[in-house]
Amino acid sequence: MKTDKKILVVSFQSLTANSGAGMARLGYYLSEQLDKRGVLQDFIVYSKGKFNTSFKSSPVSYWSRHILFLLNFLDKKLHFAPYKFRYVQELIFDFLCVNKVTKDTGILFVTQPYLPRTFRKAKKLGIEIIFIPANPEENYICNIVTEEQNKLNIHAVDAYTYPKRIQLFNESVNYIDKVIGTYPTVYETYKNAAYKGQVIKMIGHLKPDFKPLTIDNKEVTTGTFVVGYLAHTVALKGLHYLIEAWKMLMQEHTEYNIKLLIAGKVDTAIEQYINEKYPSLPKTEKLGRIPDIKEFYKQLHLFVVPSLIDGGPYTALEAAHYAVPVVITENCGSAELLSRNESGCSIVPIRDAAAIKNEIEKAYNNRSASLKMGMNAKHNLDTYRMDELITDIANYLENNLIKINAN
Fold first, then answer.
1. Residue 342 to residue 338: CA distance in whole angstroms
2. Mean pLDDT throughout 38-61?
3. How far is residue 89's CA from residue 194's CA, in Å, rounded to a whole number?
4. Angle at 342 between CA 339 and CA 346, to 5 degrees
5. What average pLDDT does this structure show over 235-243?
6. Residues 252, 385: Cα–Cα separation, whole Å
């Protein structure tokens, strides 16, 4: 008697109390829906801990939690480069994940691509592999970061440019049958890449689990206008273009009652570049790591995301949650959500300090319009239904599975 094959969902991250970390969150809600349809084989994560789910979910190995503990212990002692630490974790995950793929698997659905061993086994068993990326195509990211580092005369390796990791990606992606692009940036970069498989556009966003927050009326301020930036800054994040914009603004308008807050860790190479090129920036405060995210956003009148490329920057959605208008580059996936309906953001080209400067100037001189844009951003975020994206993906996978089981 023939047994229908099912869908194996795999996410590199781990479970949390009510969902999952990173892309495991998408895997969590998708697996929940697939299970209700009777087509889920299992939801595989790196570590499950003591968290249970209403559907079948498993750690990639009984030992994975202990392996992660050991790796973190060694990291504290030996201080691995973050990109090497991540690379080792990915290799181990792939080594363990191979055993989760069986002849009962009809579709292998993954949220990260660094699984060449697992993919090879899936191909031998005739299993379809479908990948949903969180980030734009890795070679595109590597090229744009390398180009930027060369412009800045910075020679630093990170997760985006580590040759072994790029090689691992290129080895893995050749096995993947289909890529689902949920952000415009992801879809376009995979569509234009050397990738030979099918790229499917299914626009949607991974909405954060924000606590409900009602903001009815924000008053137009006549005091200091506060502009914010927050990221773990590498060359990719484009902070230097925001700072160049700020320098231009300060030279043209010394009379402005305005302040720039720069928050988050800045990698050493970028920090050195900024300190050398911009040794003195008026009306600027570098905050480093911030203990209270809510208080940071509450004091802002404008938030800037100058990234050269970014899938769906979480910080832009955080700003929208607090009704802060956003200036964001065209290469950021979150711009698609925030610009819906009445736009909650201003979209600028990448590497364009003058455009950023103009948008800050416009917001400063049109505070009521800027405030309204912030409320629009919050409306777009609050009314967006992530469950519709999950349903679309589940429908697509189930229809594919039906065809597989019919053959």
1. 9
2. 91
3. 26
4. 45
5. 95
6. 43
> Whole-prediction pTM value?
0.92
- Say if CB 205 and CB 333 are below 8 A apart: yes
Hey, is 309 helix, strand or coil? coil
- Please tell me the total number of residues recorded for the chain in this structure: 407
pLDDT at 219 over 80: no
Q: What is the mean pLDDT of the chain?
A: 92
310 Cβ partners below 8 Å, 6+ apart? 135, 185, 236, 237, 329, 331, 332, 333, 334
pLDDT band at 124 (very low <50, low <70, confident <90, very high): very high
Q: Tell me the per-residue pLDDT of 281-334, one tens digit each, with 9 for 90 and over.
A: 899 999 989 989 999 999 999 999 999 999 889 999 999 999 999 999 999 999
Is-contact 327 304, C-beta < 8 A?
Answer: yes
- Spatial separation of the C-alpha atoms in residues 201 and 246, rounded to whole Å: 37
In which residue are the tokens 């305005």 written? 258
Spatial CB neighbours of 355, under 8 Å, sequence gap ≥ 6:
348, 349
Cα(188)–Cα(190) distance, rounded to whole angstroms? 6
pLDDT at 2: 58
Condensed to tens digits (0 to 9), the pLDDT of residues 55-88 reads 999 999 988 888 888 988 988 888 888 889 999 9
For the cut 90, the answer to whether the pLDDT of residue 175 exceeds it is yes
CA 23 centroid distance within chain: 9
Tell me the backbone φ, ψ of residue 148, rounded to 5 degrees.
-70, -40
User: In order of start, what are the domains of the chain with their CATH numbers?
Assistant: 6-207+385-406 (3.40.50.2000), 225-383 (3.40.50.2000)
What the block records as the tokens of 361 is 């100037």
Reduced DSSP (H G I as helix, E B as strand, rest coil) percent helix, strand, coil of the chain, to 5? 45, 15, 40
- Distance, first Cα to last Cα, the chain: 14
Alpha carbon 259 to chain centroid, angstroms = 28
In the chain, pLDDT over 70 holds for what percent of residues? 99
Using CA atoms, how far apart are residues 19 and 194, in angstroms rounded to an integer?
Answer: 34
Write the DSSP symbol of residue 212. Answer: P
Q: What angle do CA 15, 237, 90 make, to 5 degrees?
A: 35
Identify which of 101, 143, 119 has the alpha carbon closest to the alpha carbon of residue 197. 119
Decide: 374 and 325 in contact? Cβ < 8 Å.
yes
Whether 86 contacts 143, CB under 8 Å: no
Distance CA 319, CA 325 (A): 7
